[in-house]
Amino acid sequence: xxxxxxxxxxxxxxxxxxxxxxxxxxxxxxxxxxxxxxxxxxxxxxxxxxxxxxxxxxxxxxxxxxxxxxxxxxxxxxxxxxxxxxxxxxxxxxxxxxxxxxxxxxxxxxxxxxxxxxxxxxxxxxxxxxxxxxxxxxxxxxxxxxxxxxxxxxxxxxxxxxxxxxxxxxxxxxxxxxxxxxxxxxxxxxxxxxxxxxxxxxxxxxx
Amino acid sequence: xxxxxxxxxxxxxxxxxxxxxxxxxxxxxxxxxxxxxxxxxxxxxxxxxxxxxxxxxxxxxxxxxxxxxxxxxxxxxxxxxxxxxxxxxxxxxxxxxxxxxxxxxxxxxxxxxxxxxxxxxxxxxxxxxxxxxxxxxxxxxxxxxxxxxxxxxxxxxxxxxxxxxxxxxxxxxxxxxxxxxxxxxxxxxxxxxxxxxxxxxxxxxxxxxxxxxxxxxxxxxxxxxxxxxxxxxxxxxxxxxxxxxxxxxxxxxxxxxxxxxxxxxxxxxxxxxxxxxxxxxxxxxxxxxxxxxxx
Lengths: 207, 295
Description:
The complex is a heterodimer. Chain A is of the alpha+beta class. Chain A has 2 domains: 36-118; 120-199, 2-Layer Sandwich (Alpha-Beta Plaits), CATH 3.30.70. Chain A has 7 helices and 6 strands. Chain A has a two-stranded antiparallel ribbon with strand order 1-2. A two-stranded antiparallel sheet of chain A has the order 3-6. A two-stranded antiparallel sheet of chain A has the order 4-5. The N and C termini of chain A lie far apart (65 Å). The relative contact order of chain A is 0.17. Helix content of chain B is 50%, strand content 7%. In chain B, strand 1 (47-50) and strand 2 (53-56) form a beta hairpin. At the A-B interface, helix 1, helix 2 and helix 3 of A face strand 1, strand 2, helix 3, helix 7 and helix 8 of B.
């Protein structure tokens, strides 16, 4: 009897150790993940740390987005598995007023209901690769990012004046107004977007 | 109580085992999986989301009480339909039977049942791991909940094979889903018989606890007819729950153990039709005696 109970104890301990190790590894992996600043959370999302405590990873927001913007992170995704994110260059947030993603969230991970989309802070755009910007280097009088901006003239302004790379216009972002929707990044005609959105509170992009 | 069991000695004999309840719950499982998997194609969405939290017909929320609990313990003041969804599920579990979820809803049950079936075909009974304590899943449940507090994360969702399977179905994240399913299958087949659902899964442990006072039970109403052939033990995914009711001095014919999944496999298998469903809180072998005569 004593031997049997010892065997049970060993079995339990082995199983716990195995699962514990796996859980520890997964959680560690999750904690290291949000280094990818270009994986953006849906509008209204709580700060990353609080978001990971709140999101139940059900995917309802992903299915609710009528623009196909949101994606559910795979196991080897840029953010924790099962959590929603989007990449502006692939499909930016359409900044719709209805906010179906936020409305459907069952846990409040996307913040309190009643958010106005212009108050969302998914991230903030910046001219992260100025040498790629046609206007900034004077290769063309491009203003595609400015025209794409839903808060044109407030979040994104084209500042006229000579630039250090010989251009005549500088796209300039007011980070207190920019929602981080990424429409500018999507619109940029450069091969690698010159203007990019980085998630709030995350390290900068590897430019 | 022995006398009560003997009061109905006219047990119907069965030439071959039935598959009635097996088919019933397989249909339920597959229908649910089809509903989730088909979500992108249904014109009017039947169901959105996954088993963590879902929205049926655009109005009815159903959420996993475990995931809500984890989020609360991780420090998030849950605000949203998850409360209603989890309350509805918890209520159903409390009134009926918690582990019906394991038998009729959970997709991982298909995987572990398949591993068990393959074991039976191959005649493998041994496990590489020693059989763990029967409370291991509850210990694991507590540890997971503690880890949620300590790490401020919805810990089990980084590991839960149910979630990975559902994400594969509903969102096409096939890689991780296949990996999780294969891992559970191999664990049950090679390392530990009835391993995942029967010894580890904290989701099942929580549903079991929720359904502690549920009304639906399997009862060995005609235990006197038992020939001790062992067929129910062989097919029961939680064999330890049957033993108490087949003992001569059984206090009650009801299988009261919270680990019982109410899968009805024993009802299907028993050639002496010893087992039957019992709805209600009373032991009621006497009441059941009359009602259960073949009609």
